[in-house]
Amino acid sequence: MSKYKIIEEKLKYSGKISKFYSQKILLPNKKKIDIDILKQQDAVAILAITEEKKILLVKQHRFGANKEMVEIPAGYVDENESYQSAVKRELLEETGYEAKKIKKIFAVYTSPGIATSKLILFFSENVKKISKQNLDEDEFVEILELSFKEFFENNFEDSKTLLAREFLKNIVK
Amino acid sequence: MSKYKIIEEKLKYSGKISKFYSQKILLPNKKKIDIDILKQQDAVAILAITEEKKILLVKQHRFGANKEMVEIPAGYVDENESYQSAVKRELLEETGYEAKKIKKIFAVYTSPGIATSKLILFFSENVKKISKQNLDEDEFVEILELSFKEFFENNFEDSKTLLAREFLKNIVK
Q1: Claim to verify: residue A84 and residue A54 sit in the same structural domain
Q2: CA-to-CA distance for A171 and B105, rounded, in angstroms?
Q3: Which residue in B166, B167, B169 has the most chain A C-beta atoms within 10 A of its own C-beta, making it the best mutation to test that interface?
Q4: What's the rounded Cα separation, in Å, for the pair A125 and A48?
Q5: Which of A6, B34, B135, B159 is the most buried (most CB within 10 A)?
Q6: Which residues of chain B lie closer than 8 angstroms to A67, CB-CB?
Q7: Which of the following is catalytic: B68, B137, B139, B166?
Q8: For residues B157 and A109, is the Cβ–Cβ distance under 8 A?
Q9: How buried is A148 (Cβ within 10 angstroms: 0-12 exposed, 13-18 middle, 19+ buried)?
């Protein structure tokens, strides 16, 4: 049992994909403090390698960073959707590629101090192009296919993409 | 210039270390949408190796994950503080170790879709114990010193700690 107890929780703001809460916590020293918590659906991402040995990446504007970024395909898990289904769906929607066999490589908290949600990172080889992109009307996503060399030499600004890069470096070396 | 324009921003909730905003965005297709943005100070973290070739980690309860987690030392950058000063301060406060030479290895967005803040990851070798921990009265942090083998074999649940692990695997191999 945790020595930290959530004794009160108040919804402070409900956004479109995230909710912000204030929690009152009873600490091990019996003091009470107020903290902020962000709740969202968990996310999935995939390091996907094509039959031609290219790594699939997507380039799009990101609202938090407020700039265009290059990342591995990723997205939120829908309610009642498994991580496996979600990551296959996101890959297909964003790139048109199908991943038949996927392997979970990491399950991590990206902001454990404030966010309750996890990111589940998958790996798949020999993914196949089976359709066009299938984006929402307000989504603008460019597909990139990088060689291993290009992927390893790129200084990505996205945490999960760098984690995938370092993981792949380790297994191909 | 970005084809995405922030045309309105409203503060929705101001927490202790984070602020939640709603932004109205003008998209490239001229439509307007509302999105949520989380603003915090940038964070720093450090992969610190002692003279005895041990990796320094800290174990503490994390409120977002709502559990005890093992991570590399990390913390928020104070206002008007450099990343370099912040990471040396955090390492010293959390572990009592001093890092003389530090090297920036990654600067990443951990949640580029929603959060404006970055995480800057540093690396330092031969860090020296020079004092006791210096924690806030409500902080309870246990120091761990892992061998390279233990560090490489541990399945950390924290994104930045796994990124540091994969980075180190690549440079020692």
Answers
A1: yes
A2: 20
A3: B166
A4: 6
A5: B159
A6: 2
A7: B137
A8: yes
A9: middle
CA pair distance B150, B55, nearest whole angstrom: 9
Distance of CA A162 to the CA centre of its chain: 12
Q: Which of A17, A166, A167, A172 to probe by mutation at the B interface, max B CB count within 10 Å?
A: A166
Separation CA B115–CA B109 (nearest Å)? 8
Q: Is B137 a catalytic residue?
A: yes
> Which ipTM was obtained for this model?
0.95
What sign results for the dihedral spanned by CA atoms A27, A33, A39, A44?
Answer: negative
Amino acid at B22: S
Question: For chain B, how many structural domains are there in total?
Answer: 2
User: What's B135's domain CATH number?
Assistant: 3.90.79.10
Could B138 and A71 be called an inter-chain contact, meaning their C-beta atoms sit closer than 8 Å?
A: no
Q: Which amino acid is at B158?
A: D
H or E element that contains A166: helix A159-172
Q: What is the mean pLDDT of residues B135-162?
A: 94
Average pLDDT, chain B: 95
pTM for the predicted model, two decimal places: 0.96
Range of the domain at A9: 5-39
Query: Which H helix or E strand runs over B68?
Result: strand B67-71
